[in-house]
Amino acid sequence: MVSHRQDHTAHWIRYFADRGHGDVRSLAAGVEGAVYRLGDGTVGKVWSGRRPVGVELMRRVYADIAWHSESLPFATPEILRVEEHGGVLVTYERELGGVPLRGDSAVVAPGPELAARETDALLTVLRGLAAVPGTGAVRRLVVQGDDQALWEGHARFPDALADLVRRAVRRHGGLLAAQVPDLAGIVRETVDSLRALPDGGPVSVVHGDLVPPNVHVDDTGAPVAVLDFGFFTTAGDPAFEAAVAAAVWDMYGPYAERHTVTLTRLFAEEFRYSPDTLVLYQRAYALATYDLFSSDGGDGHFRWCVWVLTRPR
Description:
5-stranded antiparallel beta sheet; alpha+beta; globular
């Protein structure tokens, strides 16, 4: 479970300034860490949870994704240097261009109809990531909240995801059961349905957190960068990426349910994914992430997961 959030502090601004970066500015902060622009084409990221033992693997993952950059219509992160300060991991990465497509829906709620520039950008990103193979390094990643690589002991993504669901529910399942009637039945049905999925096509990289702030666009609205891999990055079925993106693109706005339905239908039509499979993947994602922001159910993500699990089917 994520235990804390890395916020911006004057300490870290001084830290980077003392290392010769003369124009340090805070950029963004979230669960993964806080990011600072260093003024020389690079950014410094102060990580909140990832220990140094895992950063070289993430560096390899970034390199694997960047290897396909010539065929991608957008840039992806690249770790240039790694250091540790006071037990905290600091990485230096190339600065990616563009501006966030929109703020998070908890801050900037979209209107009743999603703008075409948003859906077009999201479709471009989904097509691009679906073409990037899920390499061996990507398969070794551990998703947030878990204690083992998602693919460990598995040859198929649906089976790996099914076991992740079972492990996640054991963490704070009682908390979820208090809000979700017949949670045991939902878990059983979800796991059985995942295992029953047929073998799909090639496994691709899954970003796992395609929310508007993580998609940077240019003046025309075209995506130029996708950032913040790591929260739920793994190798998997590209339909899973589409399902999660449809669900998390607007989690907290007044029209969130409407947008989830609209995007799920759009992705099913555009990519010829089974609508039932997309809904199944959304349920699995909710079961795997419900407690990642608190262990008491007091956060918006937990309430969103409850909605996903209790909405009419």
